[in-house]
Amino acid sequence: MSGVFITFEGIDQAGKSTQIEKLVKRLKKEYPDREIVQSFEPGATELGAKLRNIILHEDAISAHAELLLYLADRAENVNKVLVPALSRGCIVISDRYIDSTVAYQCSGRVLDRSTVLTMTNFATSGLLPDLTILLDITVEESKKRLLGLNADRLEQENNEFFEQVRSGYLKIAHDEKRVHVFDAMADIDKLSEDIYEVVSSVMV
Ligand code: TYD
User: Fold this and answer.
1) In the structure, which protein residues have their CB atom closer than 6 angstroms to any atom of ligand 1?
2) Nearest to 193 by CA among 15, 6, 24, 22
3) Helix, strand, coil in percent for the chain, rounding step 5
4) pLDDT digits (tens, 9 = 90+) for 2-47
């Protein structure tokens, strides 16, 4: 596929939306002729929007059902949004993708990693990002940023859950060359400059 696929990851409140917005603005300026497609998980497709509502607001969901819902959402995102855009040669940016599942469902919920990887691979037909930006913040900072906001089902998890998710992300970054870790407590503009530098290195 001729496009470039970039994903953003991190625990809740890491500042992904802000950095994605800044990156898109910069890419539009630097590559005015290139189509940029933004996506997100869960919820970017028609079916995904329904699944998102269930995932984030249903009272209690078993860990296995939760995994399957995220993967159903992802299969739709891959087939209806990501692959068509990448085939058209677009720059595609997704707010969350496969690493969210490994960090939240394997490290957070403690589901078996190799089973989840096999299932994820099935849902995505093996589509991997060219680059993943991992925004790392402490759990204390994440909880602080959440204060006063309406927390969804996942955001209501305790600190231990988020510590496991954060460690899970850092382990992925250690194992996977495509994942670059950034200190998300750094100055917002400096952070976006640093992110752009890495992004420009994968542009084709
Ligand atoms: P969302 O409101 O989109 O959060 P954020 O703005 O932080 O991305 O909610 C998505 C939630 O779902 C978030 O808590 C992470 C979680 N999640 C998983 O547990 N597994 C997954 O595979 C994905 C994509 C998200």
Assistant:
1) 12, 41-42, 56, 70, 95-96, 100-101, 104-105, 152, 154-155
2) 22
3) 55, 15, 30
4) 999 999 999 999 999 999 999 999 999 999 999 999 999 999 999 9
Domain count, the chain: 1
Tens-digit pLDDT profile for residues 159-199: 999 999 999 999 999 999 999 999 999 999 999 999 999 99
42 CA from centroid of ligand 1 (Å): 7
Q: Distance of CA 177 to CAs 9, 39, 128, 174, Å?
A: 15, 23, 12, 8
What is the CATH number for 43? 3.40.50.300
Domain extent, residue 54, equals 4-200
Q: Which of 50, 49, 127, 132 shows the shortest CA–CA distance to 82?
A: 127
Does the reported pTM lie above 0.90?
yes
